[in-house]
Amino acid sequence: MAFFETSDGVTIHYGDLGQGGPLVFVHGWAMSSVVWSFQRELADRRRLIAMDLRGHGQSAPSENVTLEAFANDLIELFTRLDLHDAVLVGWSMGVQVVLQAFNSLRPRLAGLVLAGGTPRFSAAADYPHGLPPVEVKGMGVRLKRDYQKTMGDFFRGMFAEGEPDREQYQRIVHEIVLKGRSPEPVVARKALQVLADADLRPLLSRIDRPVLLIHGRNDTICRPEASSYMAEMLPMARLQMVDGGHAPFMARSAEFNGLIRAFMEEIIGRH
């Protein structure tokens, strides 16, 4: 467990485990770094770093909850730890944070893993792969009306029917649910607005690093067509569809970790 203070005075928490090529994780909306608990086994050959976005997990709250602020915190973490040849893993909203930060981090990156993400969360006339704007707005209304219920519904909605199995579900409850911490309601609402407003499509053609896209075929939060779209727009991308929903790194961690290992060995090597 470690902390650093950003240039605008926000205390950011991050975990740092293992040695080897850096593997840096960025969680999704209203979650925290504990969601990556099942990736700890990757520390046998890699250095694993997982940050809590500002206002999430053990990081301090901030009035400035924007995509730019999230990305700047990630950039400052890389600078603070002097990371090079890193593979940066983003999930869900974390994909947008990674894309936003890429240009500044480019010299320090060997590749990207974008899991369950989308360059634009809300659908548009020229982008049918997002959620209908009225659905995104409705989620914001529900957050105000009954925060705990809405968060619970969202967490359950991350998994497809039939997943995870009973044993894995118990592991998720023990390792992630009980150890996790929801953000304050105002932070969750602001971060949802970040998702509603962001459109990272113009940046995709500039991502000149190998990219592994991983997406659940039955993801109803970020639709799998979004990753298919990114696979076409990114110059050096490969798409791996997997069974299940929005959180394969939890529900199907062995398969997810195997994909990460293979990708890192391909672009960096075993050491």
From TrEMBL:
Pfam families, per database record: Abhydrolase_1
Secretion signal span: none
Keyword vocabulary terms for this entry: Hydrolase
Domain AB hydrolase-1: 22-250
GO cellular component terms given for this protein: membrane
GO molecular function, one term: hydrolase activity
Name this protein carries in UniProt: O-methylpimelyl-(Acyl carrier protein) methylesterase
Annotated source species: Geotalea daltonii (strain DSM 22248 / JCM 15807 / FRC-32)
